[in-house]
């Protein structure tokens, strides 16, 4: 059985900004049998909005960003969230990520902002960094 994750927006953007870090490695492993990842309309829209705002910094065109997101939608497991657990987190803008993780019965939310997800263990989800995730799946060489 493979591990199920949510890739937080900060990890997605970090991967676009640098090809050297753990975030980029995770995106490059999408489709690998070691893990699967889940998406929702809200998460995809956030990926797109933030990536397009930062396009000058990343050097990607809107078309490049749309192509990457289309690929992620084709490979990822798209889910509809039918319930809301709000408010659960100190930053309400992160609640939809937790809701997706609960709906998807994910094991982990992969994020750089671990403190933003304090207390999610009660939902049987754990927040881990990209580096921790790669170490866990054996993705760091």
Query: How many whole angstroms does the radius of gyration measure?
Result: 14 Å
How many E-type strands? 5
The biggest sheet, with number of strands, parallel, antiparallel or mixed sense and barrel status, is: 5 strands, parallel
CATH fold-level label: Rossmann fold
Structural class: alpha/beta
- Report how far apart the termini are: 23 Å
**CATH H-level superfamily:** 5'-nuclease
Instruction: List segments where confidence is low: pLDDT < 50 over at least 5 consecutive residues.
Output: none
Shape: globular
Counting H and I runs of at least 4 residues, what is the number of helices? 7
CATH top level is Alpha Beta
Major sheet: order of its strands?
Answer: 3-2-1-4-5
CATH architecture: 3-Layer(aba) Sandwich
Mean of pLDDT: 90
The helix fraction, in percent, is 40-55%
Task: Tell me the β content.
Answer: 5-15%
Q: What's the structural domain tally? A: 1
């Amino acid at each position: 059985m493979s591990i199920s994750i949510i890739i937080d927006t900060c990890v997605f953007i970090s991967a676009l900004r640098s090809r050297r870090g753990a975030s980029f490695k995770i995106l490059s492993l999408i489709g690998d049998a070691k893990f699967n990842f889940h998406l929702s309309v809200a998460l995809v829209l956030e990926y797109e909005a933030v990536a397009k705002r930062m396009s000058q910094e990343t050097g990607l065109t809107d078309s490049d960003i749309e192509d990457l997101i289309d690929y992620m939608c084709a490979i990822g497991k798209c889910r509809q969230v039918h319930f809301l657990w709000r408010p659960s987190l100190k930053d309400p803008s992160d609640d939809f990520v937790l809701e997706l993780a609960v709906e998807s019965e994910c094991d982990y939310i992969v994020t750089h902002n671990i403190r933003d997800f304090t207390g999610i263990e009660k939902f049987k989800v754990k927040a881990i960094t990209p580096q921790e995730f790669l170490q866990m799946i054996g993705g760091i060489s």
